[in-house]
Amino acid sequence: MLRIVVAPDSFKGSLSAPDVCRALGNGLLRVWPNADIRVRPMADGGEGTLDAVLTAVGDSGKRRQVFVHGAGGAVVDARYGILDGAGGAIAVIEIAQVVGITDPSGMATDVGERTSRGVGEIIVALLGQGVRRFMVGLGGSSTNDGGAGLLAALGVALRDGGGREVAPGPDGLAALTHVDAAALDPRLAASTFTIMSDVNNPLCGEQGATAIFGAQKGVIPTQQRPYDEAIARFAQRAETAIGRRAATLPGAGAAGGLGFALQLLGGTFHSGAEVVADLIGLDAALVDADWAITGEGRSDTQTLLRKAPFVVAEIARARAVPVSLISGAVDPAALTALGAHFAGCFGLPNGPATLDHCIANASILLADRAEQLARLLAAARWQGG
Amino acid sequence: MLRIVVAPDSFKGSLSAPDVCRALGNGLLRVWPNADIRVRPMADGGEGTLDAVLTAVGDSGKRRQVFVHGAGGAVVDARYGILDGAGGAIAVIEIAQVVGITDPSGMATDVGERTSRGVGEIIVALLGQGVRRFMVGLGGSSTNDGGAGLLAALGVALRDGGGREVAPGPDGLAALTHVDAAALDPRLAASTFTIMSDVNNPLCGEQGATAIFGAQKGVIPTQQRPYDEAIARFAQRAETAIGRRAATLPGAGAAGGLGFALQLLGGTFHSGAEVVADLIGLDAALVDADWAITGEGRSDTQTLLRKAPFVVAEIARARAVPVSLISGAVDPAALTALGAHFAGCFGLPNGPATLDHCIANASILLADRAEQLARLLAAARWQGG
User: Fold this and answer.
1) What is the rounded average pLDDT for all residues in chain A?
2) Mean per-residue pLDDT for B325-333?
3) Which of A344, A347, A364 sits opposite B376 (nearest CB)?
4) Which segments of chain A does DSSP mark as H helices, in order?
């Protein structure tokens, strides 16, 4: 019996990773009705991470939700997960569930007032339940507050020259002069944070969160410098108050600075895709597999920066399982570089097609592509190579 | 050493079959620099047939040319081929070289005045050289004269009620009342014509040459009926004069009725792709091959009507060689039907792309597609299927 691992990331803007798995599986079953298709939807720490992990762990994971403040202050019903872990419960938090850039109520608020405090509120709630291990997927945030909201929710006081509390958004931080960590939740000292992200940017400066990711969140050019300076001042004072440095660490600029705040709390950065692969048991699924398929909405040279398909390829290679890439599109300019890592890279359309057509017909195209590649392999009693 | 047969048709409007072979070969060599790539450009009896055959037979074929009248009366420098045959020389004539729809001087003449006499002139010249075996590739003609021009060139007299010769185009045939075959070249009796075509239409009527193929040659709707009637009258008289019936035979409507005239001379119809495959030694190339690739500009359900890729697939199947289809585009609606005949069907683009882009970049896309499929096979030590 053929054993095939299907482990794609989501096709953002088109299909979730489980949807991609279903489509690929359908195509494969047309050729091999009895194949053992091992479905492992992947994620990179951003949107879809929670679903991927909970789907993969089955009964040993629980889906929960909690009301917290969204980026704009409105209450959001944030989903998270609790996994059984050898050393106690592990919380899986996807910050896109709290301060997501796809949340209309958050985006309706000016970026200067958006904060990450909802993420801190989830952590507080979980600390109260005894949870001490956190896996936090960064990615898809609408905030650009340097993680000040998260720290404020955890007890850090942010004050202006008159001793008044300032709002933790970048507008409020402009008036900040003092950071006091005396009331920081003491349970954090016994907590670990595994940060899932593939962003390497520092918090501030030319490669910082505001400069690189601000515009897509609504930061206009004239705000860029004052925001960056306000966040830098906040960060410097927060580092002093907590006694750790984090602003220049790689990834501090992830999720509008949540990467900074979580590292300031001792969190460690990991490739989101690697952590997800670990949590969903990808390696075990690949044992004795004959073939693996991964993919994403669009593959280009960025894919090589440890995006989900690259991580799948690496783990599969260690198990000597050929892994093919089936993505919505594959950048022709990246094909040579990608080709070295995959047993073939394939985009979806079978002829001239618009982007809209590809998105609207992604399930059909995916199933067809998987079927046709399966036909090639089924026909090949291949001795060469 | 890997042995791979590359036997595509041309990508009409984009690349010749040898160009397609080159591109596919380039892609394969990136993965297997030492592969034995057996290049067999295919054709279907239409444009490209002569080149495909002469390329394949090498020194045992000779490229010739002769000045004859084109469809519009201007002199054209028509190419043909002479092959060594066990029973004497074989002429390979591609009617697109004489009365091709891509010849601007022919197309500048009204379709009512275009004739196929140039094709007859080549035959007369070859008869004079002792040639008695003719392979005639129909396809891509600009004429719609029922083959009257060809017959006239071979000695058949076409006359009106007053005994005056009429022009063999459909305008002239309107006045035709008598056909006299007394002066038909006697050497034709000892000649054989192998007609290469994949058109099954009869000469006249609703499925006839004028009704189905007239419009693309410039027949306007009001001419359709009078032309069809004039050709039917000519055909009936020609059949009587020569003593054989051909107008209702499948393929009589090929190439504006050249299929009729050549069958009236005793010619036999064959799938162009099958004859070409035979002439180029495709079967021999497939012996011991590990993989074959075929393709065409656009594959759809018509491909199953014995187009070149289908014929390649059939011959390869008999040799148990898996054959994949790489075409410029593959009609999604035909994928299931095509999939049963090929070891995978693949279009060219790797993402959203326009037709113009695909045509302009066909060589690059072909090489990339072949490379990526080769990578899949190279990685697969495949036990399944």
Assistant:
1) 94
2) 96
3) A344
4) 17-31, 49-57, 96-99, 104-108, 117-128, 148-153, 170-173, 209-217, 221-242, 258-264, 272-279, 282-286, 308-318, 335-339, 355-360, 362-379
Residue A220 has pLDDT above 60, yes or no: yes
Residue A201 reports pLDDT greater than 70? yes
Test the B interface: residue of A371, A375, A383 with most B CBs within 10 Å? A375
Q: What is the pLDDT of residues B341-384, one digit of tens each?
A: 999 999 999 999 999 999 999 999 999 999 999 999 988 865 44
Compute the distance between CA of residue A294 and CA of residue A348 in angstroms, rounded to an integer.
13
Over residues B200-217, mean pLDDT: 96
User: Among B290, B350, B377, whose Cβ lies nearest the Cβ of A329?
Assistant: B350
Nearest to B39 by CA among B316, B312, B320, B285: B285
Supply the pLDDT for residue B85: 80
The CA distance from A47 to A212, in Å, is 20
Locus of tokens 């014929």: B311
Burial of A87 (0-12, 13-18, 19+ CB in 10 A): exposed
Q: Are A148 and A115 in contact (CB under 8 A)?
A: yes
pLDDT in tens, B352-364: 999 999 999 999 9
The model's pTM is 0.84
Find the helix packing angle between B17-31 and B49-57, rounded to 10°.
50
The rounded distance, in Å, linking the Cα atoms of A7 and A25 is 11
Tell me the C-alpha distance between B293 and A79, whole Å.
50
Q: How far apart are CA B117 and CA B68, in angstroms?
A: 9
Q: What is the ipTM of this complex?
A: 0.81
User: In this complex, do A372 and B331 lie within 8 Å of one another by their Cβ atoms?
Assistant: no
Compute the nearest-CA separation of A125 from chain B (Å).
45
B87-126 burial by CB neighbour count: b if 16+ within 10 A, else e? eeebbbbbbbbbbbbebeebbebebbbbbbbbbbbbbbbb
Q: What is the pLDDT of residue B385?
A: 42
Distance CA(A280)–CA(A54), nearest Å, equals: 8
